[in-house]
Amino acid sequence: MRNLSQQYGPLMMLRICERVIFVVSSAEVVREVFKGNNTAFEQRPSSPALDELHSGHAIGVVMAPYGEQWRQLRRIIVTHVLSTRCVQSYRRIREDEADHLVSVLASSPPGQLVNVSALITDFVADSAIRSIFGDKLPDRDEFLKMMEHATEFSTIFDLRDLFPSSRLVRMLPRSGKDKIFQSHADRKEVNDGDREKDMIDVLLGLQKEASMRVSLTPEVIKSVVMDIFTAAIDTQTICLQWTMAELVANPRVMKKAQEEIRRVLGRKERVIEESLRDLHYLRAVIKETLRLHPPAALFPRVCLHDDQKIQGFHVPRGTILVTNIWAICRDPKYWTDPDTFIPERFEDECAFDFKGSDFEYIPFGAGRRICPGITFAQATIEIVLANLLYHFDWELPHGVKSEEIDMTEVFGLSVKKKADLLLHPIPWIPE
Ligand code: HEM
């Protein structure tokens, strides 16, 4: 799509089967669409595939139509579940899970390669599950598989959505979201000592508050937490996997990041979040990874108004507008040497803010529906990387050079790393 937009411009109209899609590939056009009071593009597109997936379930936040219900649920999430204070309260979970990851790595037999991608996937899933549900799930892998089935479609490229009027295509089988999660109440009864509140506890507590302007029924709560779960898992996993891959592919950057961590942490035996405040270079490394490999590469919206013009072109109501984050984050107009991994461009921490006001850098989206999980994601990503880089040196498989690492991307709405990252962890003991 980037190549097409280089040929046809930063606002491009594509006709794919029965769908008309406008693709935005420049910061200037994103600014025009999302800046100010314009709310015409604050809804994600619905579709036959999504309608079928959601039928019989309450709509949570991610797919909620732009309106009062979404506004209230979003306010609840931002204030009561994902605020800085709430993210702080899940700190012990992240630190425990990071300790567990370090002990798994430390006990791997010397000389044996470990699948770093798989370990990162487990870490992200377990720490998200514990923050949401309060405990690990005994059938986690089955649960993750079920979630993967439920989300393994895109609203733009599914056959049902490309041919919304075809009855035949609508009859294609679709995996259902029939099995949801184990009873939170059961666990609570057994294990309700002095543990910190998980997200479900918080939402159940809010049910009874008179000031709530939205009905937090069990179905709504279920949809909201499943939204948070699905929004959090892939994105954080992809970001962490790419960061480790870029670090081993760029030994200079790896060395600089490790020197910073080891200097800041001194001789600590355990990495805790309090020690991470001064890791400026590590934060630059994460920002650069999110620029080069934005986990959500495209974000789709639908036009809600009749009278919209972008760059002087009329955009009919119902048109899907897709913002190509990946292309904008690699546009040579904004970035010197855009395809190269250079964290130094973010060393001045104020240089680019990813909270939606610097439109050339929008890995978390833009506008009113910008990702509400930024603080949660930063905390998770920082603690894992700090642990991996503090406690271990990393060696490539025998005979592989850093420039030979397979960095092939798999494109979709997200851009995953195709090959798993297999490395030798060499424990590092402070002198
Ligand atoms: C590196 C990690 C992450 C990235 C890159 C990311 C990126 C995004 C993007 C691009 C969007 C769409 C924004 C838009 O349409 O403008 C989004 C939405 C969302 N994200 Fe994230 N996200 C990340 C982590 C998380 C986490 C950890 C959570 C929750 C704990 C989360 C919760 C959500 C939710 C609930 C929405 C929907 C918001 C709405 O529709 O109002 N995300 N995210």
TrEMBL record:
Keyword Cytoplasm assigned: no
Binding-site residues for heme, renumbered to this chain: C371
UniProt protein name: Uncharacterized protein
PANTHER family from the UniProt entry: CYTOCHROME P450 FAMILY 71 PROTEIN, OS06G0642300 PROTEIN
Family: Belongs to the cytochrome P450 family.
Signal peptide range in chain numbering: none
Gene designation per UniProt: gb13064
GO MF: heme binding; iron ion binding; monooxygenase activity; oxidoreductase activity, acting on paired donors, with incorporation or reduction of molecular oxygen
CDD domains in UniProt: CYP71-like (cd11072)
KW Cell division (keyword) present: no
InterPro entries reported in the protein's UniProt record: Cyt_P450, Cyt_P450_CS, Cyt_P450_E_grp-I, Cyt_P450_sf
Cofactor: heme
Keyword set, alphabetical order: Heme, Iron, Metal-binding, Monooxygenase, Oxidoreductase
